[in-house]
Amino acid sequence: MRFYVEPSPSGTWYVKLDGHDAPVSRHDSEEEAIERRDAYARGTAREEDGELVELRDGATVRIRPIRPDDKPRVLQAFDALGARSRYRRFLGYKKELSTAELESFTEVDHVDHEALAAVDPATGDGLGIARYVRLDERRDTAEAAVTVVDAWQGRGLGTALLERLAARAREEGIREFTATLLSDNRAVLAIFRRLGVLRVVRDGPVQEIDVCLPVGDGDCMGEALRVAARGDVTTA
Known about the structure:
By secondary structure, this protein is of the alpha+beta class.
């Protein structure tokens, strides 16, 4: 990846990724922007940590917690999403990510807000992200989402990301995921269904679902029986 610094119309300074129109970050001074540019270059060039995961088609990816210097990878991955994938992820048309959104997506506390990134070990490209954000009013519940770039969809990467995200959530005392997604997004619905007991909270073109995350044998059994009695389990 190649980065450069340029002034913004507002008098601040942008760090940009070569070949991408949207800025990676915005800074008050040119010196600060240059420092950040060099940090991005070091971060994207360094040897990756994390878990090497083999997908069902034999491809290997690296999955690890997201870092602040992953902003270029997130921007790159967003640009690799087609219009339909963007619509499904953001429930509306999305042309580009703002610098504030890139900060929100990458600068997380890894407790109440966790995000796992999938990276191509050969190229360093960002391939996908799974994240949860704990709800203030329900501390054992978190909103979860997963996004995979178009070229890697249907290969098991979304499943690998969400399974590891669920494991991290359980470590932090989270027992349930909630998600809002389009009802025709059957691939992501199927992934959530594999995590635990799925309940449809609101049906329609846009669905709201809850997924009870098992932490031990029989953990979700009581919830499973209650959901089955109501008849609102979504089955494969």
